[in-house]
Write a structure and sequence with these properties.
With 215 residues, this protein is an alpha/beta fold. It is built from seven helices and ten strands. The chain has one domain: 3-Layer(aba) Sandwich (Rossmann fold), CATH 3.40.50. The strands form two sheets. Strands 6-7-8-3-9-10 form a six-stranded mixed beta sheet, with helices on both faces.
Length: 215
C-alpha cells in the first residue's frame, strides 16, 4: 500500500528526515509518536504529496508520488486519501453538511453519507450550521467526518484528538478504527497521546535514526 524509500528532507539547511525507509501494510492502523520537531507532520505531508522530499521516494499503490503530474497527484489524493489536519481546514463559508460532502461531490458520489458521518461524530442535526458556530473540538469532529466520508484507502491523521476531551476522543478513535477496518483502509496517525496510540494496531517511534517499533 505505502512504501517510503530513503526519504530525506531539510528546512533551511536543518535535516529533519535522514534517509527514512519503511513499508506500511494494507489495512494496517499505525500510530507514529516521537519528540516535537522530529518530523512527524513533515512525514505526513510528504506521503500526501503536499510537500516534496529532497531525495528518496514515496510509493502509494505502486506509484511514485514524485513521478505524477499535478493532475494525477490531485486525483490520487482526492480518490484514495483522507486527511485529518491539526488546523482542521474546515471551509468557513460552507455548512457542516457541505464541508463533509465535499469529497463525495468531488468523487461523483452521493452525498447522503455526509449526514451519516455527522451523526457518527456526534453532530446530529447540525448539518445546516456553519463552522463559526462550533468549538474547536466540534470543528475537529467535522474534519474527521469529512476525511472518512468517501471511504479512502489511506487515512492520514495529524493529532486527530488534540482538540477533544478524553471521552469524545475515545469515541472518535473508535469510529476511526471501525471505519478503516470496515473498508480495509490503511491509516497513519501522528499523535503525542499514548491513549490515542493504544487504539492502533502498532506504534512506531520516529527519531533521527528512522522508524522503530515501540516495545
Amino acid at each position: 500500500m505505502l512504501e517510503l524509500r530513503k526519504l530525506r528532507k531539510s528546512y533551511n539547511g536543518r535535516p529533519v528526515l535522514h534517509g527514512l525507509s519503511h513499508t506500511f501494510a494494507a489495512g494496517e492502523f499505525v500510530a507514529i509518536m516521537g519528540e516535537s520537531g522530529v518530523g512527524k507532520s513533515t512525514l505526513l505531508n510528504l506521503i500526501a504529496g503536499l510537500d516534496s522530499a529532497d531525495s528518496g521516494a514515496v510509493i502509494v499503490d505502486g506509484q511514485a508520488m514524485a513521478g505524477l503530474d499535478d493532475d494525477a497527484a490531485t486525483s490520487l489524493r482526492r480518490t484514495r486519501m483522507g486527511f485529518i489536519f491539526q488546523a482542521f481546514h474546515v471551509l468557513p463559508h460552507l455548512t457542516l453538511a457541505q464541508n463533509v460532502a465535499l469529497p463525495l461531490l468531488l468523487n461523483g458520489q452521493g452525498i447522503a453519507r455526509a449526514t451519516e458521518m455527522l451523526d457518527a461524530v456526534g453532530l446530529q442535526g447540525r448539518g445546516d450550521d456553519f463552522p463559526r458556530q462550533l468549538s474547536g473540538g466540534e470543528m475537529q469532529r467535522v474534519a474527521i467526518a469529512r476525511a472518512l466520508a468517501h471511504r479512502p484507502a489511506l487515512v492520514l491523521a495529524d493529532e486527530p484528538t488534540g482538540n477533544l476531551d478524553p471521552e469524545t476522543a475515545d469515541t472518535i478513535l473508535a469510529l476511526l478504527r471501525r471505519e478503516i477496518k470496515a473498508t480495509g483502509a490503511s491509516a497513519i496517525m501522528v499523535t503525542h497521546s499514548h491513549a490515542a496510540a493504544a487504539q492502533a494496531d502498532k506504534i512506531l517511534v520516529l527519531s533521527h535514526s528512522g522508524l522503530s517499533l515501540l516495545p
